[in-house]
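Example record

One chain of 261 residues, shown exactly as stored in the release files.
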Amino acid sequence: MLASQRKQQILQILTEEKQVMSGELSQRFNVSEDSIRRDLRELAAEGKLQRVHGGALPVSAAIAPIETRKSVQIASKQAVARAAAALIQPGQVVIVDGGTTTAAMIGFLPADLSCTVVTHSPGIAVALVDHPRIEVILLGGRVFKHSVVAVGAETLAGMARINADLFFMGVTGVHPRAGFTTGDYEEAGIKRALTARAAETVVMASREKLNAASAFAIGELSLASTLIVDGEPDAALRQTVGAERRGDRPRSAVAPPGRRA
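Predicted structure tokens for this chain:
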């Protein structure tokens, strides 16, 4: 079998099984693990998978620049955004992450909603200008242009003074093995820090982010109090979340749009 044929079969296996292990592929194709690792390196360089220790996971399509992401899975993001907006109660203090899915949530907030929104996204802050009863706190810092959010020491210092009810977090990947991931190291750190400033974290994941992974880990699936996805996740993701619900932090859940987990 040619290496090109083997790589195509690896991608097919990855699509079906949601992860591949180098040792198992070596046995399946009767080649050395070095050959498999070379295949995975080349496929990763082409942006077709995300390498992890011992193998690879499906790569997230959500790591493109924000302008590109605005046209990806629009209906799915709208469904997730509508469900997320319904969780906000009058008088709450909520943190809203940057990103196209969280931005879509703003359009579903009632015009008369009274609450406080803390965000490190200039775009989110501007979108809330037309909500007269929503107090907006914009965290400062260096602008990470890929996602148009503030990051860095000033952002961390600002969030340290916040105690919020909810944090609505965007991610680029949700995977049973990799957990929640994103495409930038510093942005992953900001997201982790924001989860510590809220009583509950709501993760919003449109369809293309499920069973996919990016390079930088935010945390395990148990980091979320509620995971809102577009429709029912597949069996592997349901099983992982179900196991975490029975573990030490029984707050993790998967909620189809329109229903609170």
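Notes: The CA atoms of residues 225 and 252 lie 5 Å apart.
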